[in-house]
Task: structure prediction
Amino acid sequence: MSIEILQTHKLLDTCEKALAERFTVHKLHEAADKAELIARVAPAVRAIAGGAVDDALMAKLPKLEIIANFGVGYDSIDTNAARARNIRVTNTPNVLNDAMAEITIGLMIALARRLPQTDQFVRQGKWLKGNFPLLSELNGKTVGILGLGRIGKEVAARAQAMKMRVVYHGRKRQPDEPHIYYDNLVDMARDADWLVLIAPGGKATEKIVNREVLTALGPQGFLVNVGRGTLVDEPVLVEMLQSGGIAGAALDVFEKEPQVPEALFALDNVVLSPHQGSATHQTRNKMGALVVANLDAHFAGEPLLSAVV
Ligand code: A2R
Result:
């Protein structure tokens, strides 16, 4: 008898195909009546592929053994509830580090040199009437990384290749890392020209970048967020961008995606991106393969490849 699993959102075709070859897959996101589907399949479902799993959903699935999240961030899964219910949780770390680091540097250059705006400047014929204003460069500047983890370290390596000085903040100093550690985010923001956010979402980091941090970053400082929208106090950020309280922001993530504060659309000191961090064929295929590999390992009784619970 085929193992039954619940899929909570759309996955890559390659990943869905691999799941269908192994399991009987129930697609929650395609169900017209989600409650009816859950009630019908609940007695048999042993795994979930995808995120957005709260305690209430776990409670409805008495045979649930494992949640295989698509993505390194698993803030959409109630891991405390999973632990209490003895349900394993996996994520997809490392395979996206390079893609994430590339988009981070890309957004930094795009913001420093206003690439979206200069493109529009040429297309709209404005160059014929005069030159675009002078801008700033990355080299020689200090970048403060909030979250010098797997992705943060790849960002750091690339920032150094851009001839930037790297400093970082996290809950603890990493003795093996050569960069200066700040135990206080406000202090780091004050000393940095660029503040790059690549820490997890969730309660512990909610609005960690608040008015005090942004004020410390200051009118010459740039913010880049490729971690989670919840890391930033978004209304305060909008206000500071409007007033010149900080120099600019490049944002790949937002508090209520895909809703983006419309006030940002009118600002020239902003570069916006629709959560594209890991969104390449190369990386998403690897992430999908890791979701499937974790489920394979679990049902073969082997160690999980990337367990978080
Ligand atoms: O706090 P530490 O020393 O464990 O450093 C981690 C940092 N971090 C925090 N920093 C300040 N306050 C916190 N409450 C806090 N919690 C975690 O974030 C670490 O340096 C970094 C996370 O690194 P990794 O666990 O290796 O995650 P990875 O693979 O780099 O991905 C980061 C995030 C994901 O969670 C997604 O939200 C996003 O990138 O795509």
